[in-house]
Amino acid sequence: DGVVSFRREKFVPFGGPDGGDGGDGGDVVIRADSGVTSLRIFRQKRFYKAVDGKNGGGKKKHGKKGEDLVLTVPVGTVVSHKTQIGGDALIADLEQLGQQVVIARGGKGGLGNIHFTSSTNQAPRIAQKGEAGEENTLILELRLIADVGIIGYPNVGKSTLLAAASAAKPKIASSPGLRTKHLLRNPRTNLGLNLSQHLHSFSHK
């Protein structure tokens, strides 16, 4: 918020206004980080708020801007929000390491009383409150991209290999056709595996 303040000096008993402006609020930012492998944390906590800007001060001191809040997500996260007609509107596709997007901007800081002097009011005792920041409800989706594709006919050991190379626990038996498709990313190795027996779905030359 802006502040109401007046000059107070030894030889200036009736100084003019010197109230400074308040600082802007911090932004909420989403950034793609290779060290993050899931969106699980956003199930546990659903509301996030950046730091408010500091109030202005006397002697025309401007309040400090609020610190931004940076939320880290896996590379491949799609950020969207619900529209008024019920559909999803894309905000950003964070497919590159370090890519980021501002999802809620902080409010503008209020003006101090130095801005409200006029020919009829040389000592204004009013200041402006800061504006509220943006508030958004978002949808986060993680698009997994496989690093390795395991392709083979039924009952040739794809599920056995998948179980040995990852934390997945597919059913393993002698009968064919138990596993048709499996996409997994191992958080320990960050290795994506795609398992399929549909050979005809892959083009070749």
UniProtKB/TrEMBL annotation:
UniProt keyword list: GTP-binding, Nucleotide-binding
Q: Which Pfam families does this one have?
A: GTP1_OBG (PF01018), MMR_HSR1 (PF01926)
Any one Gene Ontology molecular-function term assigned to this protein's record:
GTPase activity
In this chain the Obg domain maps to 1-145
Q: Which InterPro entries match?
A: GTP-bd (IPR006073), GTP1_OBG_dom (IPR006169), GTP1_OBG_dom_sf (IPR036726), OBG_GTPase (IPR045086), P-loop_NTPase (IPR027417)
Q: Does the keyword GTP-binding apply?
A: yes
What stretches pass through the bilayer? none
PANTHER family xref list: DEVELOPMENTALLY REGULATED GTP-BINDING PROTEIN-RELATED (PTHR11702), MITOCHONDRIAL RIBOSOME-ASSOCIATED GTPASE 2 (PTHR11702:SF31)
Q: What is this protein called?
A: Obg domain-containing protein
- List the source organism: marine sediment metagenome
